[in-house]
Amino acid sequence: MPMTHTELNEFHWLADMLESVEVGLVVLDLDFRVQAWNGFMENHSGITASKIRDQVLFDVFPDIPEAWLTRKVDAVAMLKTRAFTSWEQRPYLFRFRNTRPITGTEAYMFQNLTISPLSGSTGEVEKVCLMVYDVTDIATGKRALERANEQLAKLSMTDRLTGLQNRGTWENLVDAEYERYRRYGHTTSLVMFDIDHFKNVNDTYGHLAGDEVIKHAAHLTRHNLRQSDSAGRYGGEEFGIILPETDAEGASIICERIRESIEQSIVDTTAGNIQYTISMGIAQLTDTPENYMQWMQQADNALYSAKEAGRNRVIVFQS
C-alpha cells in the first residue's frame, strides 16, 4: 500500500532529524554489517553512509575491540534488552578525533555507548542500534578535577620549598617502618641531619640565600638516595631519611656519600657563593625503642653527638 502524503512528510522529517541529531546512530545486522549510518557518524569518520553500507564494521574499523563488542551485541540480542557502557569503562568505541575547540586538550572524543535491540515483524531481534554519545566535555572536566585533586593531595604531603615529604607525611612513614620492623624484623635505619651553622648563613647572606641552601641540601640528598628510601624535611634546616633493608654500616656509606657531595659543592646565590656542611646521626632500629618516637630520638641523639664532635661528620647511635 503506497504511503500517503502525510506519511511521506512524517518520514522525511524523521529521517532529517536522525541525520542532524548530535548522536551517532549505527544500525548493524547480527553479522555486524552496517545498515544505517547517520550524519554524525559521517562527519566524524569521514565515511559516507553509501560507502559503508553492507560492510562489516570490523573491516572498516579494525581498532574496534571485536571480541568485546560481539559479546555485548550477542547479550543484547539474546536478552532483548539494552546495554550501556560509559567512557570511564571504555574511553571510546570509535576512535574519532576531538574537534571541539573548548575541550581541545583531549586528542580523542570520549564516548558513552548504548546498544539497543531492533526486532523484526516476527518479534525476533534482527538488528541492533549503536547510539554513540560525545561526552568529551564531561570527561575532560572530570579528568581535570581528578588531576587537580591528585595535585592537591601531593601538595598536602610535600614540603613546598624542597619538594621532599613534609614532616607529618614523613613521620607517618617512620611509624609505618617501625611497625614493619616489629612485625617482620627486617633491618632498617633512620637518619636525622641538619645544616651546620645555618643561622650564620641566614645572618650573612639573608633568608632567601638560606632557602637556596636548604633546597640544595634536599636536591643532593634525593640524588644520592635509592628509590626505596624516603627523605623528608623535618623542620627548618633539619631533615630525616628512612633507609629500609639497611644496617648501620650501609647507612653510614650512604650518609658519607651525601655529606661529601654537600661539602664539595658550592651554592650559587644572588648574595654570593656559599659553601656549607651537614652533620648526620644514624640509628639502626633494634628491639629497644618502644615506639617510633624513641627511634627518632636515638637518631637525634646521634646527630647531637656529631655536633658535639665538631660537625661535618656522621655518627652512629650507640645504645
UniProtKB/TrEMBL annotation:
In this protein, which residues make up the domain named GGDEF? 186-319
- EC numbers on record: 2.7.7.65
Q: Which UniProt keywords apply?
A: Kinase, Transferase
Q: Name one GO biological process term.
A: cell adhesion involved in single-species biofilm formation
Query: Kind of enzyme, top EC level?
Result: transferase
Instruction: Identify the Pfam families for this entry.
Output: GGDEF, PAS_4
Task: Determine the domain of life of the protein's source.
Answer: Bacteria
Q: Which InterPro entries does the entry mention?
A: Diguanylate_Cyclase, GGDEF_dom, Nucleotide_cyclase, PAS-like_dom_sf, PAS_4, Rev_trsase/Diguanyl_cyclase
Give the catalytic activity.
Answer: 2 GTP = 3',3'-c-di-GMP + 2 diphosphate
Q: What do the Gene Ontology cellular component annotations say?
A: plasma membrane
Cofactors that this protein relies on: Mg(2+)
MF term (GO), any:
kinase activity
Q: What is this protein called?
A: diguanylate cyclase
